[in-house]
Amino acid sequence: MRRLSLSSRLALLFAACTAVVSLFAGVLFNRASEAHFIELDQQQLDGQLIGLRRALQDVQPGQREARLADELSRQADLALRITGSDGQREYDSSTQIPEVLPRQSGLTTVSHEGTEYRVLNAPLYPDKPDSPQLTLLLDITHHQHFLQRMQHLIWLTVGLSALATALLGAWAARSGLRPLRRMSAVARGISAHSLNARLPEAQMPPELAEMAHSFNAMLGRLDDSFQRLSAFSADIAHELRTPLSNLLTHTQVTLTRPRPIDDYREALHSNLEELQWMAQLVNDMLYLAKADHGLLVPRREALELADESDVLLEFFAPLAEDAGVTLSREGHARIEGDRSMLRRALSNLLDNALRFTPAAGSVRLSIVDQPQAVQVSIENSGDGISAELLPRLFDRFYRADPARQEGSSEHAGLGLAITQSIVRAHGGEIRCESKAGWTRFVIELPKGE
């Protein structure tokens, strides 16, 4: 069974609500009209009762019928029955009066042969216990016809109003849902080559403006992710092309003619270096893929950052001495984290700092113990990084130096991306600041419980 569209559902809902409201209003009006007619009939019968009592007050028995006929002749739709105290019928003004009438006092309604009567029973002499009973009958058929026409009109009004509301509701719903159809059209037109499409948020109603904003934000994220993925794929091909080309060329040259065993051994050693570089690149990419899927779960152990930093500074000391760079560390703090992962992150930052620090420069590592977190910063002197390049430093395969250095895993452009993944796996954040001849990478790590 095909599901109803949202416009059809809204139209049917509008029609149902209108029908219920119209029916309720019609029933109330019908009840009010009926109560109004009863009140008018009560007043009319009470007035006739007073007139009959006054007319029969001092009349002789032989003149009673003439007097009653005179009184009743003024009201064509009024009939009268007089019953004695013994229950015997003494007078009927019409032969069409029903044989059986209600005997209780007050106003009642009876139906006889298609005619509706309002019946009022009352004593002729209220102060006499053996007084004859007067039964006044008022023909209210015209009232009932009016009420029946009113009911028919109510049902007609309910049907027409429901139909009109359904049509207007369908038009209003279709007009109101036009922004959704526009969103659907934009979504249908989205592909890998058209992720730059956006919805006009300013033209959206307030109820859909937030959805349009979220939709545009989603498209922006998808566009950014797709661009990064395309660039990532291109960078992978770029990085692997050089070592593969070197392997093929070297192997082909080696196999062009018979060579001594030492030449083959040298060729294999050269190929091994290229293969090791490729293996390191693949391992780094797998490491980042694990981080993207939340599979990079660090072990938690108590660490003294000062001791871990000193171990790394001791490792890089010979390189710094050869480059004429001064290494220093200040501050200390304790955190809970993965020793090997944090050492790798700090090692990447120290390696970058040493490579870009000129001779006679310095690299400083500082640790600041804060109430809620630990801040570790590594800064080096030298040429700064322009502000427009800072947001892209942690992109994969990105190098701030436009001269792409290929063939060495040290310059694959994955070090900062891996560092960022490690820091985020520990629940921290990393940023880069560069000004006044200094470049500083700041890591903020939360303290363990």
UniProtKB/TrEMBL annotation:
GO terms for cellular component: plasma membrane. The chain crosses the membrane at residues 153-173. Pfam families: CusS, HAMP, HATPase_c, HisKA. Its main location: membrane. Residues 174-227 form the HAMP domain. It is found in: Cell inner membrane. Residues 235-449 form the Histidine kinase domain. The keyword Lyase does not apply. PANTHER family: SENSOR HISTIDINE KINASE CUSS, SENSOR HISTIDINE KINASE YKOH. Member of a two-component regulatory system. This is Sensor protein.
